[in-house]
Amino acid sequence: MFSPSKCKCVTILLAWILALNFNAADDSSCSVTVDISDGVVEGANITKDGVTYMPGKYFEDGTTIKGCVCQVKTCLRRCCSSNETLTESADGGTACEASNSSVDVLQGLQAVSEANVSLFHIISVPAREVCHENESKIFVDSDVEIASSGDLIWGAETVFSFDQYCSSIVDGHVGFVVCVTADLTLNAIIYCIGMIISMPFLLITFLVYALLPDRNLHQRALMFYVLSLLIAYILLVTINLAPNIPTWFWCKFLGYSTLFFFMVSFFWMNVICFDIWYTFSGGRGFMGSKRTSERRRLIFYSLYANGVPLLIVAWTYGMQISLPNECEHNPGIGVAKCFLATGWASLWYFYLEAGIVVIANITFFILTALRIRKVKQETSMLKHNDSKRHTYEKDKQKFNLYVKLLFAMGVNWSMEVISWLVNWNTKSEYQYIWYATDFFNAVYGVFIFFIFVFKKKIWTLLQRRFNWKMSQETVLTGTSPTPSNVSNSKSTLP
């Protein structure tokens, strides 16, 4: 028979054993603790500051009793202390600066949570420990809700856990710095591989045409097209392989630059298609000599191919600053990632423009093909005029060359738009089907190289160019060339 005193001792002993068991189980998951050594002990429970810690919610650490506060209250990380605000430092990191705002994070929480603010436990996080090294920072200040679990819900869909965000006062109201890990998808990896393969071929194509002795308008337009596409590829690969750009400014700068150079490449291709149609339709061009006319047309085309993309970028930026971040029509450049957001943003600010340009290019080629067919039916007239027939045959060869380019570009970008639409509507459920088309679209630079560079005529022109340089070097060194050498030198001048 147990006495009451013995029974009490046994009860305390059992409670202590249970507490040890719970402590051992929860110690590893207790990331945030408070000192409750001076709390009020009520049986196996410890109460401090109105918060009761049951067994398993606290543990002993030497002579100190620590309570797992985030297991009994909703923890919220504050980016800085109560009288500071988070700013971006010069080196791309984050820093806390003194703030004159009278608004505290707890006061601002009432607007983002239905829970009583007394249920929150605020933890101040050092400015440089807000996010991990492999994470990017984005700032949200609207359409935000704090769940009782401490998770931040943004836009009713995106959920960030307690350790993925912190709160800060900005412009007199509460906002949240969210940490985003930009993991590369398989589709993005395939794209990066394809674009990296394309880069040297695009560069070689540009350099080869830059070295040609006589460049006409089409060749110059091709150079600008290849160069803009190369820069766009470099920027997009940089964004994908280095997703955690150090500053918000550089992230947005890279995003808008990528959009601009992709648009420039689209519109230079549009220039090429238009000019071929214009040539076959009998356009007279600008007044003056052929060289002067081409120079003026090139200036006009340059204003078009660079001006329209600039307007598109300006429109995109205007929409970004006028629409809230959580709006699905917001471009989202530099928000969750450096380039355009998925969904409607990709449609309005990229694929719509790309689709319109591709349709216009195909239309120009159809009109040009019809014109060629009409000219073929008039071959009897051409036979009586060898110069006209020679010009026609030369233009026809040029057209056939660019037909290959259009076929490659038209098919690739058409499949790109279709794959994007399917993935968007099916939430990427069948995206593996489009891996092959996406890869071939990314290695488009290889096709350009073999279409425009891997030709005997181009290598002959390059040989002529380098022979001309060698002759000039001979003159500069003071060597007296033989008459035959002089004759050859003159014959190789462009």
UniProtKB/TrEMBL annotation:
CDD domains: 7tmB3_Methuselah-like. InterPro entries: GPCR_2-like_7TM, Methuselah_N_dom, Methuselah_N_sf, Mth_GPCR. Residues 187-456 form the G-protein coupled receptors family 2 profile domain. GO terms for biological process: cell surface receptor signaling pathway. Keywords: G-protein coupled receptor, Membrane, Receptor, Signal, Transducer, Transmembrane, Transmembrane helix. It comes from the Eukaryota. It is a multi-pass membrane protein. Belongs to the G-protein coupled receptor 2 family. Mth subfamily. This is G-protein coupled receptors family 2 profile 2 domain-containing protein.
